[in-house]
């Protein structure tokens, strides 16, 4: 039941020896999603012990190099490793044109398909789903088209309360009906409402990834209720003008976003290298939103399962 | 008087946590040249303490991703750092088209020019020179157009033997004539041959970089006399068939190249990750060419100045 984010890279502008460009891996019950792919992402994945062969989809927020220059090297390595499973790729245009250039010059003999879906960064829409997960785009406000992504578990199917099976002497057809959400008529003629017979085993968890962007109240509304929220904080509060000018956010703006989104926990990152003490930004954000952590490369941030306490009833 | 090569990356195929794709920096008396630029080169430069701002030219051997995917990230960082000096770039086509795509989508506001010269990999020609250095292309044999590069110091200007100035009572005009290579007529009418008056203070040094390639006797002839030779050895001798099939060389082939080129010292690299003991390749090459070292990432290999012992005469 894992739902966890590993931060592979979280630095803005020029990288450093120990700071890498943007990339997160989200593991939802052993489904692996890569979000952004700065230079060196494949080596950062190795350091984190995550095989790139496990990736089922890649999501790119916007086409600035620090968010996507690691993509073609990663795809090349997947070719070398003999991947055969298609890889889904979600990114704004002109990714199509870049992919065509990549295929033409660097990837002529790839054994797997890249299943590319262009993302319209102006729209909040369901762009991808698996059996257990939905992914939505979140329009952001940056110097070029940019969007965040919201990953949310689907409502789990209804479970039957075992205690009810004995109490009402339910048969297989009645159990199946209850699991479909129906009320059940007993052989006595009594009708038992569905809510009495079933429960949701756990509440869906969600992760919102919002970078690069100005503060956007609208985006905060779309990330509503995220258990874990990553929001960029390129600048400290003192550089608010620079943040505005470059289409980025300050630490306090990230915190205000989290507050408005009613997030469970805030991770801030994409911080400028200018801060000798990057925990300054954490302190500034915590003054507004106490459940804030500075994203640390190589570290994994988990959202615990939210099991339904009614299960035992 | 430095003439030294720092190996930033030397692995073939998929990178590892501690092995990077091809990139060497050649420092010739504080002129810095980057040769190949695999993913992560900019961070490897930082690790080696070499500022990318110091680079005066970049040479790419061929357009396989493991030799050039670090180029656009590096150029982006140079833009961010505010470089203004034009950067020379030598690479085979279709680099022009790749650069245009890069400029269009990722590099619209760069403060410096990229001065690109296409390299015809079929030709051995002088492609670049500075006041003190010449760079030649060396055609190689790979699965796509590929060339090596030979960096050679120019002959230094003639120095006057100080002892002769007193002995013959030379004036400024006579000294200048001798430095131009002329014989000098003394006031006694005696003519002193130039060789007696002057000497070359040192012999030119050279570095040849040959990857990716089959063994090529012709290329060895063009790298003749290189003080330091880097030659790829992707495979051990046991994988000769694989080397042939993929357009690469074995350790022994690299050594035979060095022998034929009469190189001073051989560095082998671009070794496959399949070898748990990569020094196996060094041992195989040393059996043929004893002055062989396996290129180690982060290590610097120097060529000492070859001062002319006649100076003291």
- Class from helix and strand fractions of chain A: alpha/beta
Oligomeric state of the chains in view: homodimer
What's the CATH superfamily of the largest domain in chain A, by name? Ribonuclease Z/Hydroxyacylglutathione hydrolase-like
CATH class category of the largest domain in chain A: Alpha Beta
**Main sheet strand line-up of chain A:** 6-5-4-3-2-1-19
Coarse morphology of chain A:
globular
Radius of gyration of chain A: 22 Å
Helices of chain A, by number, come to 11
The average pLDDT value of chain A, as a whole number, equals 96
CATH architecture of the largest domain in chain A: 4-Layer Sandwich
Structure description:
Two copies of one chain form a homodimer. Chain A has eleven helices and 20 strands. Chain A has 313 residues and is an alpha/beta fold. Chain A has two domains: 3-156 and 200-312, 4-Layer Sandwich (Metallo-beta-lactamase, Chain A); 159-198, no CATH class. In chain A, the strands form five sheets. The first copy, chain A, has a seven-stranded mixed β-sheet with strand order 6-5-4-3-2-1-19. The first copy, chain A, is globular, with a radius of gyration of 22 Å.
Quick gist of this model?
The structure is a homodimer of 313-residue chains. By secondary structure, chain A is of the alpha/beta class.
Features:
11 helices, homodimer, 2 domains, alpha/beta, seven-stranded mixed β-sheet, 20 strands, globular, 27% helix
